[in-house]
Amino acid sequence: MVSERILPELNTAEISLDRETALVLYEDMVLGRFFEDKCAEMYYRGKMFGFVHLYNGQEAVSSGIIKAMRQDEDYVCSTYRDHVHALSAGVPAREVMAELFGKETGCSRGRGGSMHLFSSAHNLLGGFAFIGEGIPVALGAAFQTKYRREVLKDDGYDQVTACFFGDGTSNNGQFFECLNMAALWKLPILFVVENNKWAIGMAHERATSQPEIYKKASVFNMVGVEVDGMDVVAMHKVATEAVARARAGEGPTLIEALTYRFRGHSLADPDELRSAEEKQFWAARDPIKKFAAFMTEHELASNEELKAIDKRIQEVIDDALAFAESSPEPNPEDLRKYIFAD
Ligand SMILES: Cc1ncc(C[n+]2csc(CCOP(=O)(O)OP(=O)(O)O)c2C)c(N)n1
Ligand SMILES: [Mg+2]
């Protein structure tokens, strides 16, 4: 029997989730899942190239956090596992898919690919191939918000930044340096660690002296919380509280989401290091199935309504694929375009 670190079930009697929010969360998680499944299909059919890191299993983290924020106003900073964060932040599936095909219509004009999604329109600060690279960038976004508000006295700036990264990345120096600065300056930022137990083939407990990452917040006098990353209701609740704290000028939060990736590290990974038992344990906690059951149980939606959403989202994905495939390649004459700001 595997012994897994999980949290007690959320007491749903304490939760009041309205139908509108629930539908947003469900739809966003399904969008993420179907998008990634389509990527896997395209990759294995030889139509998509390069490194592709999928997010299956972790959807509750992206949807729960980002849907508690203001779309296009707040900032989202991702990693190389960035497709679903981009979708939750409002980047159209067409633009994300086209980017993965290296097309001119992609959100990074086809120059970035899977690990470098970017959208100024949706305040997506980027996907980053180097681990921990996004943390100082997110810190900078949070700093400029606070600087404009408090030093330049512009009340229009009250944005919150969400910075996502993995358990393995939390052992890197940027994590500690940026936590210190964020706490010192009370920056409006959420550090969201997606603890999926593995950093490629390195088990989390083998790589860190204190596996309970949220506890690392305390040495910086920061709020640290652990949350069930397979439960979108729990994620959304924690995110709503952290966003309110950040927006009120009360500073950052370190959120450790206990989650799991259902596929290998990347689509090139044969995924032979994790035991079948462990994979089965987490597969049984599928966040989408769990939330679908929650919604029907609490009469937030019927099974038929959920099926209709699934069908509609599949059409969005099919449309995104057709768009990506029929879009033009970047013009070789534009090779030097977008290297520097105009
Ligand atoms: C600075 C740097 N060092 C090493 C790597 C190689 N690398 C790519 S992913 C990864 C593991 C990251 O694991 P984690 O932070 O847990 O994120 P996950 O892949 O689980 O989402 C490493 C070491 C890298 N990309 N950048
Ligand atoms: Mg990890």
Automatic annotation (TrEMBL):
GO molecular-function terms, A-Z: pyruvate dehydrogenase (acetyl-transferring) activity
Name the chemical reaction catalysed here.
N(6)-[(R)-lipoyl]-L-lysyl-[protein] + pyruvate + H(+) = N(6)-[(R)-S(8)-acetyldihydrolipoyl]-L-lysyl-[protein] + CO2
Q: Is Transferase among this UniProt entry's keywords?
A: no
Which keywords, in A-to-Z order, does the entry hold?
Answer: Oxidoreductase, Pyruvate, Thiamine pyrophosphate
Question: What InterPro entries does the record tag this protein with?
Answer: DH_E1 (IPR001017), PDH_E1_Alpha_Subunit (IPR050642), Pyrv_DH_E1_asu_subgrp-y (IPR017597), THDP-binding (IPR029061)
State the Gene Ontology BP annotations: branched-chain amino acid catabolic process; pyruvate decarboxylation to acetyl-CoA
**NCBIfam families associated with the record:** PDH_E1_alph_y
Relate the assembly described in the record.
Heterodimer of an alpha and a beta chain.
User: What name has this protein been given in UniProt?
Assistant: Pyruvate dehydrogenase E1 component subunit alpha
**Species:** Synechocystis sp. (strain ATCC 27184 / PCC 6803 / Kazusa)
What is this protein's gene name?
A: pdhA
